[in-house]
Amino acid sequence: MKKLSLLFLVAALSISAFSAEKADAKAGASVTESKKVDMANIDAITSASIVPAAIVKEYIPKGFTDSKAKKALFVIGDPRHNSVTFDMAYTAMKFFEENGIEVTLRDLYAMKWNPVLSFDEFYYQKDGIGTPTQDVAEEQKLVTQADYIIFVYPNWHDSATSIVKGYQERVFAKEFAYTADNNGLRGLLKGKGLFTMMNCGFLGGGRGFIGNGVGISDEKWDSYMKAYKVFDDDLADWWGMDNYGRFMNDRYPKNLSENYPKEIEKLRNDLKASLQKTFIDKK
């Protein structure tokens, strides 16, 4: 029975990893190659847990309206809609809307967002000279409407994924997000909150933020979290925003875990509890 359940889970993972992502014509070859994979090493190969198709809880937010409700802009940089990173985003977006906060999703890979700051737009982004390109102007309008900017990405080399970093570099331009004069640097996005959600690994074990280690390597966990706080404080200050902190998950379910449904549900509940404390209780 145990072998059958593992086979079922592996089959679900295969479906989730390829068909759920609407893979291109190369998917057939990829599936064939995947049969050669040593299943004992699947977690290392995939970099992070992939949610089986049967328990993915996709959530598409309704978007901003002209109401006076608080608004959260989710900027997500992960190509895999069945990743734990995206599962966290689905959970958070649904939580916000259930609590009266409007949500707009910017799925950067689906949008085919160009993260490269070109020479033609360099002087606008860095010096505030000229006008933004159409794609940047559209994002700036959403940022202006939003009360909260939520960046969501997996931990690839300890920082924002390149597509998210490129979004920050192109959208948060001088004279839009900040300015500088004889009195120094001044952020222009006053009253907005910056928050980050990141699915990670090898950061010491933990779930949440500073002080939320789980007894694996708490000193290492806190050293990473404190470093991220320094970075976030500086970025928020640069733009004139308030740093609302992070939700970091270093305890994602293993792909072949027999308790996967319970483990992913625990993660979802932990995330909602963190969002409740950060965004709802402090109103």
From TrEMBL:
GO terms for molecular function: NAD(P)H dehydrogenase (quinone) activity. Keywords: Oxidoreductase, Signal. GO terms for cellular component: cytosol. InterPro entries: Flavodoxin_fold, Flavoprotein-like_sf, NAD(P)H_dehydrogenase_qn. Pfam families: Flavodoxin_2 (PF02525). The keyword Signal applies. This is Flavodoxin-like fold domain-containing protein. The lineage of its organism: Bacteria, Fusobacteriati, Fusobacteriota, Fusobacteriia, Fusobacteriales.
